[in-house]
Model the fold of this input.
Amino acid sequence: MALTSEKVTIPVEKLKWMYETMVKSRYFEDTMVEAYNEGKQPVFNIGAGPVPGEMHLSTGQEPAAVGICAHLQKEDTVTSPHRPHHHAIAKGVDLKRMTAEMFGKVTGLGKGKGGHMHLFDPDVKFSCGGIIAAGIPHAVGAALAAKKKGKDWVAVTFVGEGAANAGGFHESLNLAAVWKLPLIVVVEDNAYGISVSKRDSTAVESNDKRAAAYGIAGAYVANNDPLEMYRVSEEAVKRARSGAGPTIIEIETHRHLGHFQGDPELYRDMEEVPGLRKLDPIMKLRELMIVEGIATEEEIESLETTAKKEVDEAYAFARESEYPKPEEALEDVFSK
Done:
């Protein structure tokens, strides 16, 4: 059984996975907001609380991750920028160890040394480049390795629309195009690069148009649509696996929260935020599944319960885990 529309056919089980994963990502971020704000009020203090440092959450941007990760295998590589949680969850990163890493615990992916912006799980070939276009060259390297080894693996790198103006974006795409590498660049256009509007920083209407400059494929997904993201991603992954080269996909998405937690968001009209939330892709997909007879209310509630249970268990694991001991600070940092 599958959901078939004019443009796309999606197997029911895949569609249910997409919905459950989007719910899991959203609930994870909602729970992280509460944990992150502990000890930081009434005066916001970035260094206080159990989760210090900046925190960039992906609430509202879930379709970008599930639409393409629905087509990926464990051997495929994903790199992510500083807003990485929905990508990591969709790629199958160990949620308990990921959460523990964000809390700086010894049970974390990097034993608490990397934190939220440096998540790394080699078991599923996921890494977080940190900021701006830093993850794109890594993905190019993974794509080159796959080609040299004669594998059909692909490399996907997620970036914000602001990163499309960085040198690393263009240098990486030029090499990937010249070598016809199995690379897919997903540009998440949430309208702002930190506090700068896209219309004030970018000459082209959408970054998929830049693909023409490199002689590669480009696709645009409007309205934060997970079904359309699934469709164009399917084509891009097939293209990459067949040796036909890279693709740029830009998705119009909606950042419900600030650039970072504690961001006063003085640069945007806050009246627009409730409107964005009315376009919530999770609620729209939920309604579609019910209308199309893909799932009953009870089946959807079961998916939601399963997703939230996994998140609750991950947070409990992170809370109960130990912090590294001072004498362990340099372990696994320098080779002996």
Q: What stands out?
A: The mean pLDDT is 93. The chain has one domain: 2-319. The first strand starts at residue 2 and ends at 4. The first helix runs from residue 12 to 37.
